[in-house]
TrEMBL record:
Keywords: Cytoplasm, Cytoskeleton, Microtubule. It comes from the Eukaryota. GO terms for biological process: mitotic spindle assembly; regulation of mitotic spindle organization. GO terms for molecular function: microtubule binding; protein kinase activator activity. It is found in: Cytoplasm, Cytoskeleton. Its main location: cytoplasm. GO terms for cellular component: nuclear microtubule; spindle. Residues 1-60 are annotated as: Disordered. Residues 35-60 have a biased composition (Basic and acidic residues). It comes from Cannabis sativa. This is TPX2 C-terminal domain-containing protein.
């Protein structure tokens, strides 16, 4: 691609230089006013040799994809480290819980071990003795409210007389 452009540019320069030479010879014979616009343009093209400009050199592209890739890699690394830390903490908690459970099991096993009991004395048998305390005598509850009606407490317990009448009738039946 580059070669085809340079060839066409060379052809243009050659043709311009040939036409400029013909114009200069003809212009000197014609009016001596100076150069026309076409002549000035052609002189500019012929006088300066074509050189590559320094500003036209190709620069490297700075795309954000590389920066984003680096940031994404750092983010992935941080996420992975957090997950690893969380897993380690869970494993440590499980170990601690397992140790606690093992200690509890050991303690329970120690407690569950049957202890040796003394042998009973068969040469002197056990004879229960009668208690010295007197027997309890039950008392019947007094459910009649007629006795309580004389007291002031009955009015506070049953404020309406209708309830006490209904209750007394139910007790009598």
């Amino acid at each position: 691609m580059e070669k085809s452009r340079s060839k066409s540019a060379l052809k243009f320069v050659k043709s311009a230089s040939q036409s400029a030479a013909s114009w200069t010879s003809s212009s000197s014979t014609s009016s001596g006013r100076g150069m026309t616009k076409d002549e000035a343009l052609k002189d500019r093209l012929c006088d300066k040799p074509k050189t590559a400009k320094e500003n036209n050199k190709q620069q490297d592209f700075k795309l954000h994809t590389q920066q984003r890739a680096v940031k994404r890699a750092m983010f992935n690394y941080e996420v992975a480290t957090k997950q690893y830390i969380i897993e380690q903490q869970k494993k440590q908690e499980e170990r601690i819980l397992k140790l606690i459970e093992d200690e509890e099991v050991r303690f329970l096993r120690k407690d569950m071990v049957p202890r040796a009991q003394l042998m009973p004395f068969f040469d002197r048998p056990f004879l229960p003795q009668r208690s010295n305390r007197p027997l309890t005598i039950p008392k019947e509850p007094s459910l009649s409210f007629q006795k309580m009606s004389n007291n002031k407490c009955s009015s506070s317990v049953f404020p309406s007389s209708e309830y006490s009448l209904i209750f007394n009738r139910a007790v009598r039946l």
